[in-house]
Design brief:
It is a single chain. With 487 residues, the chain is mainly α. It has helices spanning 15-49, 54-82, 84-104, 108-136, 140-172, 176-179, 181-195, 209-232, 237-259, 273-293, 296-303, 308-314, 316-336, 338-356, 369-392, 399-430, 435-460; strands spanning 468-469, 472-473.
């Protein structure tokens, strides 16, 4: 009796393999997005247990966001050039190991180090996950559906973060919010090593190491000056020197990018008004959204006296509104045009932030939650159409690059938002104002900048209607969709 032959392995791109790949890609992006919001819920506990102040909390957030912002484009190029599976699994491994470092951190310095490593892992993981999907779904209509599922399922991480962070922190303390990444990371590594197929783009551009290094240093030094300026004094030699060094590094970065044959950030794209305006508005979106959300849990805990768990639940209207509204933003832009939807979205977000600037310790939650929901709705209407506008401004083969740049500008705005709005709060406190008054000033400043940008986009966001494609209107629905790009 002869043994029956073994069943042949499923070919690359077969339905079983695609299901596993989609699961792995979605779960990886879920882990990254969960980390974006789960940390905010734990900031009050970190402040108390690590005996740190506002500056320390700013570094805990910005150390991660800075690395994600400045390495996203390089992560996409790495994935295409050296293999999407390899870069994805490397990102998962680094992110998981960094999460363990964060959970075991005995001091603020170690925690910031772990957050830097997390940012590096996320900058590799996120673009590689989308690149894997793009390679596995070559048919445009199927690819749109797969990316939509990737965006929707992974976006649940945004809504789950505040609740999960509140529950874990209340029960076990802040280290637990990082430990939750370990089982997810181990599962992804086991599934990925066993089931993912390697793909790469042999024509991927060369890496722009000088441009990447200079941009990281420039934004990093600028962030240092903005965060530390409130504590050390804006006119101290160290802070003034940091601003000067950041300006020199930024100028050097622009010069290198202009001369590099394959720049990380092609400056010629900014000759297109639509591209420039959309990315400028995206910087403000990241600035106002991340800068204000940095204070949400702190407001409920330190101003209104909520527990950490209750504060996590109280911040939920922002992320829930974003998850619910984001899938419709692209459709609305296809019907009414980029200019209308973006301007309305920014106006709503700005008004919501201005309304938050008037809440106080005795303001009932029934008069707070709708303000948070308006902010989330406004920014949900804004992000996807802005990315779509940036993509429309360039040639079809540069759409992935435009998407990646759009995400990078949003993340840079987020870095600056945490730094600058934190500086507003600290400056007000140094002048004798209460923490509550400082928060009100920060929310009002974010709202004013957002409303001014709404006027700016209303006047200058030209070519406002998306072009139709064989798969339907151009839509980008992921809350962190442009974090990944592939060529």
């Amino acid at each position: 009796m002869t043994a029956s032959p073994a069943a042949p392995a499923a070919p690359v791109g077969s339905r079983p393999n695609r299901v596993v790949l989609l699961t792995v890609a979605c779960l990886g992006q879920f882990m990254v997005l969960l980390d974006n919001t789960i940390v905010g819920a734990a900031l009050p506990d970190m402040r108390d247990r690590l005996n740190t102040g506002l500056t320390g909390l700013q570094w805990i957030v910005d150390a991660y966001v800075l690395l994600v912002a400045m390495l996203l484009l390089s992560g996409g190029v790495f994935a295409d050039r050296f293999g999407r599976k390899r870069v994805y699994l490397t990102g998962v491994a680094v992110f998981t190991a960094a999460s363990l470092v964060c959970s075991l951190a005995p001091s603020l310095g170690w925690l910031i180090t772990g957050r830097v490593l997390q940012g590096i892992g996320a900058a590799a993981l996120s673009p590689a996950s989308l690149a894997l999907l793009a390679a596995a779904y070559p048919v445009p209509r199927e690819r749109v559906k797969a990316i939509g599922l990737w965006a929707g399922l992974s976006g649940i991480g945004l809504a789950a973060g505040p609740v999960a962070g509140g529950v874990l922190t209340e029960a076990f303390g802040w280290p637990a919010i990082f430990l939750v990444n370990l089982p997810i990371g181990v599962l992804l590594l086991l599934l990925g090593l066993r089931c993912l197929e390697e793909t790469r783009n042999p024509h991927a551009p060369a890496l722009d190491v000088p441009g990447t290094a200079l941009s990281v240093l420039a934004v990093g030094v600028l962030t240092y000056a903005l965060i530390e300026g409130g504590a050390r004094g804006w006119t101290s030699p160290l802070i003034l020197g940091a601003f000067a060094i950041a300006a020199v590094l930024l100028a050097a970065s622009v010069t290198v990018e202009a001369r590099h044959p394959a720049p990380m950030l092609p400056l010629r794209l900014f000759r297109q008004r639509l591209f420039t305006v959309s990315n400028t508005a995206m910087v403000v979106t990241g600035f106002a959204l991340m800068g204000s959300s940095f204070f949400f849990s702190q407001f409920f805990v330190y101003v209104q006296g909520s527990s950490i768990l209750r504060a996590g639940l109280q911040t939920l209207p922002v992320s829930l509104a974003m998850v619910v509204v984001s899938p419709y933003a692209g459709r609305l832009a296809a019907r009414y045009g980029f200019r209308v939807v973006v301007t309305v979205g920014l106006a709503l977000a700005g008004l919501g932030l201005l309304a938050l600037g008037t809440v106080h310790a005795d303001t009932g939650y029934g008069n707070v939650w709708w303000r948070l929901a308006v902010v989330g709705t406004g920014f949900a209407l804004t992000m996807s159409p802005l990315t779509g506008a940036a993509i429309q401004a360039v040639s079809p083969h540069e759409g992935g690059l435009a998407s990646g740049i759009s995400s990078t500008t949003r993340q840079i705005g987020a870095v600056l938002g945490v730094a600058l709005l934190g500086a507003v709060v600290r400056t007000r406190q140094s002048g004798g104002a209460s923490f509550e008054a400082g928060l009100n000033s920060a929310f009002l400043a974010a709202g004013a900048v957002t409303l001014a940008t709404a006027v700016f986009t209303g006047l200058w966001l030209a070519r406002s209607r998306p072009e139709e494609s064989p798969t339907g209107p151009l839509t980008v629905t992921a809350p962190n969709e442009a974090a990944a790009h592939s060529r």
